[in-house]
Amino acid sequence: MRKEYDFSKSTKNPYAKQLKQQISIRIERQTIDYFKSLAGETGVPYQNLINLYLRDCAQSHRKPQFKWS
Known about the structure:
Radius of gyration: 19 Å
Strand content: under 5%
Shape: elongated
């Protein structure tokens, strides 16, 4: 490895705006366990599964249904 690298001619990552954003979110343990078991079956990491599901909901404009007691 070199001691120093020259980045003066480098370019910005054109996909930087498409990267995922890290957030904190409170999700029930049962929901996490469900996606973790699904991850074990599919081989896809559970966080990716949650993201895929939420993206599908957003793209199809699916809204949650609430039942207030």
